[in-house]
Design goal:
The chain has eleven helices and nine strands. α1 crosses α5, α2 crosses α5 and α9 runs parallel beside α10. The strands form two sheets. It has a five-stranded parallel beta sheet with strand order 6-5-7-9-8, with helices on both faces. Strands 2-1-3-4 form a four-stranded parallel beta sheet. The protein folds into two domains: 142 residues, Response regulator (Rossmann fold), CATH 3.40.50.2300; 146 residues, Ribose 5-phosphate Isomerase B, Chain: A (3-Layer(aba) Sandwich). The chain is α/β, with parallel strands linked by helices and 296 residues long. The structure holds D-ribose. D-ribose binds next to α8.
Length: 296
Amino acid sequence: MERVVFLCSGNTCRSPLAAAILRARRPDADILSAGLAALEGSPAAEAARAVARERGLDLEGHRAQNAYSELFSGGTIGLAMTRRLADEARRRFPDAADRIFSLGAYAGSPDQDVGDPIGQGDAEYRIVANQVADLLREAEARTGWLYLQTVGIGSDHAGLILKREVLAALRQEGIPARDYGTDSAESCDYPDFAQAVGHAVASGEVGAGVLICGTGIGMSIAANKILGVRAALAGEGLAAELARRHNDANILCLGSRLTGPELAREAALRFLRSSFEGGRHARRVAKISAMDLDNR
Ligand code: RB5
């Protein structure tokens, strides 16, 4: 499971409130908060506790902590309350820089900061809590089923340039991505990267994958050998979306010699933002999974 860390300065009002609000919506996820200049051990501000209580949340046991690099291990996503705090966190934790965003940017409103209500009355804290809840809802609508999850992406030499285009589009949209290589134009073997991303998806290290080779065919054949992977070769938006909605595909394969950058970007975003519909499709996907087990 992925982890989210909300970041503010003192870790006594904005970030613990944000963490409590999201925890209530996603009890399955590991949701933390931390400061960049916290007085460690301080309780949440009185007004933050009061506003939390009004929303049925509990900040009584909260104690402030400062962010540290292990907090960002694995696929952890950092969501800072302002652009300035996001910049500061990226500077301090460079290994996680591509997974740290301002909450506004993550929600698709890059100019929106969540201001510091410290020292102000309950009304200002209420405004902050509402703003955070709105931004979280927008982020959820925007990033869809992947809400908190990192995307694993890989290519061979033939898919390298298209992979960079797709990666840039994901980052622009605030979707965290981890690149499993290749990172050079030197000739290499696509099954190596299909295996790396396939295992990352099957183990839950990432929420979904994108694999790119010359045609996408080699990647899809190789990735589908891994138990738990459902890789779909879908070089345009509708096919990519239906691969999620109907087939519960967890890896999208693209062919750089068949699909141009614009279509590839659209296919990747529609794939990642669509959800499995279940119902009659669940019965069919269960039959595919049973075949996986039969063939073990
Ligand atoms: C590499 O030349 C090419 O064979 C590979 O990228 C892919 O198309 C395989 O399916």
